[in-house]
Design goal:
This protein is α/β, with parallel strands linked by helices. It has one domain (2-158, 181-210, 250-257): Rossmann fold. The protein has helices spanning 13-22, 40-50, 71-91, 124-139, 159-165, 185-196, 214-225, 260-271; strands at 2-6, 26-29, 54-57, 95-101, 143-148, 151-152, 172-175, 179-180, 183-184, 202-205, 212-213, 231-234. A 6-stranded parallel β-sheet has the order 2-1-3-4-5-10, with helices on both faces. A two-stranded parallel ribbon has the order 6-9. A two-stranded parallel ribbon has the order 7-12. It starts with a strand and ends with a helix.
């Protein structure tokens, strides 16, 4: 079976592609150099040329704060690009897997979010990703929407590496009132494979099991790294960002991924 991956050179794509190959799939890797998803003619040409059975759409505009400054670009990539892919997938009877985000929720729910819960994004990034979801639902007959959260991986800039790079500061303050589900790219990749193994089409949450704050996440990172840091919790108000973040975006993953602490331990062992 042939799978075309967009954003193959990104943090997720670089873990996902070899995992798919290990599962026996023929993988076609694409990125901005050979597939501009905002160009509908190019999308049509590339998908017609390769004729994949499945498209896994990882390419995205992911800079949450910068999206507030350039919403048109975020919308062009996350919404229009996704619409272009979904349209051609429908025309060619291709299954589409769309990687989405916990930021489609407003964070006001104090319990876990289920895939059926009402969405209400509070930043531009979340809005454009939700619009992408809606196009997939509208245009595709065969689709998986995989919402993930707090993603980190060995092949890209991420929270884990940022924390370690700041470990020598006299004091390191990290937000303690935003709660979510840290997710390793390998866990997300394995979760996607599980969907393709025969799960019904629809919306899924593929994120680390359990929950923590950014402060709790940082604390676990330093403990595993055996680094002594003057780590202090702070509030969102003490650490203002351009884009609003949901305060509680914990998602129910129905056991698709392991506990986030177990995954983080494996990641930390890998990076040594």
């Amino acid at each position: 079976m042939k799978i075309l991956v967009t954003g193959a050179n990104g943090m997720l794509g670089q873990d996902l592609c070899p995992i798919l190959e290990d599962e026996g799939y023929q993988v076609i890797e694409t990125d901005i150099n050979n597939l501009d998803i905002t160009n509908s003619d190019m999308v049509n040409q590339v998908l017609s040329e390769h004729n994949p059975d499945i498209v896994i759409h990882c390419a995205a505009y992911t800079n949450v704060d910068k999206a507030e400054e350039e919403p048109e670009i975020a919308e062009k990539i996350n919404t229009l690009g996704t619409k272009n892919l979904a349209k051609i997938c429908r025309q060619n009877d291709i299954t589409m897997v769309y990687i989405s985000t916990d930021y489609v929720f407003d964070g006001k729910k104090q319990e876990k979010y289920f895939s059926t819960d009402k969405t209400n994004p509070i930043n531009i990034y979340g809005k454009t990703k939700l619009e992408g979801e809606n196009w997939v639902k509208k245009l595709c007959k065969k689709y998986y929407i995989a919402r993930t959260a707090w993603l980190y991986g060995i092949h890209g800039k991420n929270f884990v590496e940022t924390m370690i790079s700041l470990a020598d500061k006299p004091e390191l303050k990290v937000v303690d009132d935003q709660i979510g589900c840290p997710t390793w790219t390998v866990e997300l990749s394995n979760g996607i494979v599980k969907l393709l193994d025969g799960e019904p089409y629809g919306v899924y949450h593929i994120c680390g099991s359990g929950e923590t704050s950014w402060y709790g996440f940082a604390k676990e990172i330093f403990q595993l790294a055996k680094i002594d840091v003057n780590l202090k919790p702070c509030s969102t108000e003490e650490f203002p960002r351009r884009a609003n973040r949901p305060k509680h975006s914990v998602m129910e993953n129905n056991g698709i991924c392991r506990n986030w602490k177990l995954a983080l331990k494996d990641y930390m062992n890998l990076r040594i």
